[in-house]
Amino acid sequence: MRTSYYFTGTALAILFLFPLLWSGWASVRTDTGFGLDNYVRLFSSANGIRAAHVLNSVIVSALTVAGTLVVSTSAGYAFGRFRFPGRDLLFLLTLAILMVPYATILIALYVLLGWLGLEDSLVGLSLVLIVFQLPFSVFMMRNSFEAVPIELEESARVDGCSSFGTLVRIMLPAVRPGLVTVGLFAFLASWSEFFAPLILLNSTGKFTAILAVVNMRTASHGSIDYAALEAGVVFMAVPCLVLFAFLQRSYVRGFTSGALKG
Amino acid sequence: MRRRAVSGALYATPAAVLVGLFFVVPLLLVAWMSLHRWPLLGKARFNAPANYTAIADNALLGDAALFTLKYTVLITVLLFAIAFGLALLVQNRRPGVGFFRTAFFLPMAVGFASASLLFLGLLSEEIGPVPLSGDSPALGSAVLLVLWRFAGFNMLILLTGLQAVPLDVYEAARIDGATRWQLFSRITVPLMRPTIALVLTMMITGSLLAFDQFWILTRGGPDNSTTSLVMVIYREAFVRLDLGSAAGISVVLLVLLAVVSSVQFAVLRRRSV
């Protein structure tokens, strides 16, 4: 029993880790041995990534993470701790975003953002990405707020804290694992999101990094520079993996500490 | 108490505005667009029901619908089985379990488009250590990619459901002489119903909307054999420059999806509210 657990676990772990390790290896493998040639081609070939693309990705991710945290914390507090007209309707409507084809909305969003003057705009893209994060993050934050003992909040209110003071001083520290999870998810989603920027950004100058990397594959008729692509994969994955390693503990705790009860 | 209701409504306002403006309005807009001849550039003109009648004549769309359905069934069955297996494997606290959980979940940290590029190389004949061949390598590579990337994520969600089942329920059943299989089928699965519904909903909707993996791995080929529904929508809108037709297909897809997932959503709702 014990041995089979370790055997199965280890075999599966190797299977899951192998593609990641391979892409790292393939990204530094060159014709003559090992080196950074593939990365040089990634950043210098005609269809490659430019610094501006990376900056665009950073801007979109920062806006999306900040926006998602603010909106979902505020909404989670409202859903978890207050009763008000339209509460259940709004909550269901937010969850309903999960059920509606992403692509469907994007066609209409493309038109809508044009009307709002946010065509081909990083801000417009970020707003859309925030909305797509809401079902998960609002659900998560509502459950996090619900899990905070009511006595904690009441004692703060007795001490004369306003509802906003209670939120900032008492509740936010208590829901930190949830915030970390929501923030991490928003970053992972926005940093590597492909379909929304593909539709909402038109000019190559506005491209995010992943659009630029995929462009290396799709713009090449003929032969694909696979090694440079793997360099692109590593370049895109490293920030996510680093962040993940840093936050993994509080992240997994946020996930399992009653945030998504069965 | 009234003041609390006002505060609550105020805290919910940013979410309400975003959901209204970027979810409800586009939802209505897509229905409105589907009733018009709506070119990418230029004026829209009412033409209902032309966008819907054209759907029947769209040969590519029929093939794409069949392919997407086949892909969805394949992914849902395989992914659920594997994710549940992984969750059962790592549900108990024992040495090494943290490492296993992290290893299974780690692919989720790589973006889906990046993961598609990774597998494009991994399964290629040029530089791949495991070049994929066989009857339908295109579909096979997409399935492998999705299983690798999403198994750990679904494992983690199922794990939260597994751990929420109170231990004393198991104890009581064990005292009554229940076998391991009975524990699993009579206690674990029924008590996990909302979690299972959530996971299945995400798998089905996610697969029905597949785009990135085929766009990057196969470009829809060979001979459009791996063209998904969303790829057809994209093509109508941005290759044929006909947003009205894309909206028409979207609405049909949307209605089908709403029917499929409302069943599961009902199960999910029973938990709270």
From TrEMBL, chain A:
Keywords: Cell membrane, Membrane, Transmembrane, Transmembrane helix, Transport
Membrane topology: Multi-pass membrane protein
Protein name from the UniProt record: ABC transporter permease
Gene Ontology cellular-component annotations: plasma membrane
Pfam families: BPD_transp_1 (PF00528)
Source species taxonomy: Bacteria, Bacillati, Actinomycetota, Actinomycetes, Pseudonocardiales
Organism field: Lentzea aerocolonigenes
PROSITE patterns in the cross-refs: ABC_TM1
Cell compartments where the protein resides: Cell membrane
From TrEMBL, chain B:
Ranges where the ABC transmembrane type-1 domain occurs: 65-264
One cellular component term from this protein's GO annotations in UniProt: plasma membrane
Superkingdom field: Bacteria
GO biological process: transmembrane transport
Main location (coarse class): membrane
Keyword tags: Cell membrane, Membrane, Transmembrane, Transmembrane helix, Transport
InterPro entries (UniProt xref): ABC_transporter_permease (IPR051393), MetI-like (IPR000515), MetI-like_sf (IPR035906)
SUPFAM superfamilies assigned: MetI-like
Transmembrane segments: 12-35, 71-90, 102-123, 143-170, 191-211, 246-268
Record carries keyword Magnesium: no
Record's subcellular location: Cell membrane
PROSITE patterns per record: ABC_TM1
Membrane topology note: Multi-pass membrane protein
Family statement: Belongs to the binding-protein-dependent transport system permease family.
Protein name per Swiss-Prot or TrEMBL: ABC transporter permease
Organism in which the protein naturally occurs: Lentzea aerocolonigenes (Lechevalieria aerocolonigenes)
